[in-house]
Specification:
This protein is an alpha/beta fold. The protein is globular.
């Protein structure tokens, strides 16, 4: 059986789709599973050993350069690649018009959400078979339910992201157990106050734990460096790709993160994680996994650092 999954973005959404791969492999051990994903996130499907081929797409980049010949040559190459295999099932778990149109480029029977289940109902017009999935389920469970309905099995076992990473051996790591602070997110209203990070970092230092602060953009790295300079024993990580970030998380004792994809990656790797929400409701898209995790806060609800420390002490003791 050959199956193509279409889940292109964003980082957290792509991570939420990993349990689908584990479910399919559990029920169809010989299945060949491919995945179409935005080029920025190809490292995530590649972490799962059951993914045979990752097919990158560059919608975000192409739409900024539609007048260039090189863009159209890349689009043609993508269409050839995605159409090279006859699939038994093409499953779009994103439910957007964009993802439905991408899925139609592949050869096979196309499955997706019914109009009353999709994020963009118009997407349902491009599927051959439709699945009704409740909209009030967590995103991970919706993905799993859609794939299960499409392929005729029951997704009743515990959530299994199916990925692992080896702990990093970076020369700049602190020489004692560490906790990763994931302070960066896509919107300023999702940030946690810097004074709260400082309080938490100082308390963790007094308990014998160092803090490591990664950052992607220049602004994020500046924040990480500023916080690290004020927290005893803390380290601001150099720029890192997804694979190295997974290794960093794999070697940590715990993670604390705002509403960002890397917080979901920590949970997917089985790392005890406290997720902080200040502008969004975590009910349908908060962290979810088989190990210890905790979603704190919500829309216009800023978690207190004492509450975060209390959750962490249970796993750091």
């Amino acid at each position: 059986m050959r199956i193509l999954l279409v889940k292109t973005s964003s980082l957290g959404d792509v991570i939420h789709n990993l349990p689908v791969v584990s479910d399919i492999r559990r029920h169809f051990p010989d299945a060949e599973i491919d995945w179409c994903v935005e080029e920025s996130f190809v490292a995530i499907p590649r972490l799962h050993p059951a993914v045979r081929q990752v097919i990158p797409v560059a919608i975000r980049r192409w739409r900024k350069k539609l007048l260039r010949g090189a863009t159209w040559r890349e689009i043609a190459a993508f269409r050839r690649q995605i159409a090279a295999v006859q699939y038994d099932a093409v499953i779009d778990t994103q439910g957007l018009l964009k993802s439905a149109l991408l899925a139609r480029q592949a050869r096979g029977l196309h499955f997706g959400y019914a109009a009353d289940s999709a994020r963009e109902p118009l997407a349902a017009r491009f599927y051959d078979r439709h699945c009704h999935v409740a909209r009030d389920l967590h995103a991970v469970l919706r993905n799993r339910r859609l794939a299960a309905d499409a392929l005729g099995y029951a997704a009743e076992n515990a959530v299994d992201y199916g990925i692992t990473a080896s702990p990093g051996t970076f020369s700049w790591l602190p020489h004692r157990p560490y906790v990763v602070f994931l302070t960066a997110t896509s919107r300023d209203d999702k940030l946690w106050p810097e004074s709260y990070w400082l309080f938490l970092g100082e308390r963790l230092n007094s308990l014998g734990f160092s803090v490591v602060l990664p950052g992607g953009s220049a602004v994020e790295r500046e924040r990480a460096a500023r916080l690290a300079a004020a927290i005893p024993g803390a380290v601001a990580a150099p720029p890192m790709g997804i694979a190295d970030l997974a290794s960093l998380l794999a070697g940590a004792r715990a993670a604390v993160g705002v509403d960002t994809g890397l917080t979901h990656l920590a949970v997917a790797l089985g790392l005890p994680t406290v997720a902080l929400y200040t502008a969004t409701d975590p009910g349908l898209t908060g962290v979810l996994g088989p190990g210890f995790f905790c979603n704190l806060g919500g829309k216009a609800q800023v978690p207190a650092p004492d509450a975060v420390l209390g959750e962490l002490q249970a796993v750091l003791a």
